[in-house]
Design goal:
The complex is a heterodimer of chains A (182) and B (334). Chain A is of the alpha+beta class. Chain A has a single domain, classed as Nonspecific Lipid-transfer Protein, Chain A. Chain A contains 8 helices and 5 strands. Chain A has a 5-stranded mixed beta sheet. Chain B has 334 residues and is α/β, with parallel strands linked by helices. Chain B contains 11 helices and 15 strands. Chain B is globular. The mean pLDDT of chain B is 92. Classes of the chains: A alpha+beta (182), B alpha/beta (334). At the A-B interface, α4, β5 and α5 of A face α1, β8 and α10 of B.
Chain lengths: 182, 334
């Protein structure tokens, strides 16, 4: 297994340890993530059920594990967009499982991206978005999500039912959209 | 400023949602391709099934927009049936025009579907009036997409000597100067833009960011570039890399990671007789399509009404955050 410090091409191994290679903030006490896991499970199963076409575009990449690293947060997310059993889990930064792809950026940047407000290639050009690991899987995921009639952010918000309005307002504030609208 | 007749705005779409976004943002025409090797954007998760293409054509036609099918890679011996099937599927969808580059597929179209409108792809590399007239005479080509090697003055001259419409790229990735003849990817990966429909196949691309934030991009074992922390990056294509060559180190030996942006040349292109303005980027997101198509819709309408548009915000969407007018302004470029 490789680590982020190895210099060989990342994709030459089937699944690697792709931890954040930025200086992570110190969070000495593990977060009680068990509170978050049922919500993440609800989100991923709801989105998967709403968009079966997503998995045709993903092809074999639906079996891959994507590490979603929102820089500055004490946790990371691991997504496996498997059409049969989609998984989304939160992990403490010091305990990240092996993944195939790492997608990293600031939380507002990632939010704007899944909300369809900004182009991921442009984020890559400006170095606001970082990709490592299996590039083919990351491209397939980007294109599959981009073909959704809604945005991923809208789907996530809808999962909150009666709280969707306040959740949307918080996301807009964090991503900067709310401030732009004011 | 004198008002000009508005040209057709031809916009990219990599997915059905991208096509709807382009139409809704003001595209007159959208070009797209089928899944597989028949077009030059054969990326994972991208492109249309025949059913999706048919639905896209209906969506566009209901809104007075047109759809073009790019079937513009070159079939190899023993595989021509894949391209012929794509052509048959496109015709069945009611596509407004098929964009081709291969002479064999042009003949197939003329023989099998003589009433189908056909455009000549930039991949065909037809840059002289003589070459374009050959395609028009033999295959009834209605429009040529010009390679990005001509100045506006040269385009005007070509326009006066050919019997078909001209489509010119105005924004996006600026391709190799000998379009349709690039073998760099093939040399490194064994896969070809022209034969397999893919430039820098994603499964051969590797990124590595070290602890200091320096980013290295590789295609197979070839290091294409290394970007310092905070330095703008480009696409992982061989032609945009920096190399050590005999007279220079870290040198863009082929071309630089910049995007074409001809916003300020639009009036000149329109006066030169260009019928259609093409935006590159079927591999880009809906956010890109929405932003660029909206901006060019406004720009074209502003110029047509005699106003000067402001499109300064497009720089953020360009490769390497840099833009150029390439050879359209002057042959001294590069």
């Amino acid at each position: 297994m490789m680590t982020e410090h190895d210099s060989a091409p990342l994709s030459d191994t089937p699944r690697q340890s792709l931890r954040s290679n930025k200086a992570a903030p110190a969070f000495p006490v593990p977060l009680p993530l068990f509170v978050l896991q049922p919500l993440l499970r609800h989100i991923v199963t709801t989105v998967a059920g709403r968009h079966p076409d997503l998995f045709e575009r993903l092809g074999d990449s639906q079996k891959k594990k994507f590490l979603i690293d929102a820089r500055g947060l004490p946790l990371v997310l691991v997504l496996q967009p498997d059409g049969d059993a989609p998984q989304l889990h939160a992990h403490n930064r010091h305990c990240v499982p092996p993944c195939d792809v790492r997608i990293a950026g600031s939380f507002p940047t990632l939010l704007r991206m899944i909300d369809g407000q900004t182009d991921s290639d442009a984020l890559f050009f400006s170095r606001d978005l970082s990709i490592s690991g299996d590039t083919e899987a990351s491209v397939a995921l980007r294109n599959a999500i981009d073909d959704l009639d809604t945005t991923l952010a809208e789907d996530v918000v809808a999962c909150f039912g009666p709280l969707a309005g306040p959740v949307r307002a918080v996301l807009d504030y964090v991503s900067g959209t709310g401030r732009q609208r004011q | 400023m004198t008002a000009l007749p508005p040209p057709e705005l031809v916009c990219p779409a990599g997915t059905p949602a991208g096509l709807r976004t382009a139409v809704d943002a003001g595209a007159d025409t959208v070009y797209c391709g089928f899944q597989g090797p028949t077009n030059a954007r054969n990326f994972p998760g991208l492109n249309f099934t025949p059913k999706q293409m048919a639905q896209a054509v209906i969506y566009a036609h209901e809104r007075d927009a047109k759809v073009l099918a790019a079937i513009n890679s070159f079939p190899t011996a023993g595989r021509t049936h894949i391209w012929k099937q794509a052509i048959d599927d496109a015709v069945e969808c009611g596509i407004d025009a098929i964009i081709i580059a291969d002479i064999g597929m042009a003949r197939y179209l003329a023989a099998r579907h003589p009433d189908q409108r056909v455009h000549l792809s930039v991949q065909a590399g037809a840059s002289s009036a003589e070459a374009i007239r050959f395609w028009c005479d033999r295959f009834d080509i209605k429009r040529v997409v010009l390679p990005r090697i001509l100045t506006v003055a040269e385009i005007r001259k070509v326009h006066d000597e050919i019997p078909c419409e001209i489509e010119a790229f105005v924004f996006g990735n600026i391709g190799m100067m000998a379009e349709g003849r690039c073998s760099l990817t093939n040399y490194v990966t064994g896969s070809s833009t022209n034969l397999d429909g893919v430039c820098s196949p994603a499964n051969h691309v590797h990124y590595h960011e070290d602890d200091q934030g320096n980013l290295t991009s590789r295609l197979c074992d070839v290091t294409i570039d290394r970007y310092a922390q905070g330095e703008n990056a480009g696409y992982p294509t061989i032609c945009k890399g920096r190399y050590n060559v005999p007279h220079k180190e870290h040198y863009y030996a082929f071309e630089e990671p910049v995007s074409l942006n001809l916003t300020h040349l639009l009036p000149d292109l329109m006066r030169a007789g260009v019928t259609a303005l093409k935006i590159e980027g079927r591999q880009r997101s809906r956010a890109y399509v929405r932003a660029v198509v909206s901006a060019f819709r406004a720009a074209v309408d502003d110029y047509a009404a005699g106003r000067t548009p402001d499109v300064s915000h497009l720089l953020a969407l360009t490769e390497g955050q840099r833009e150029t007018q390439g050879a359209f302004r002057s042959k001294t470029w590069r």
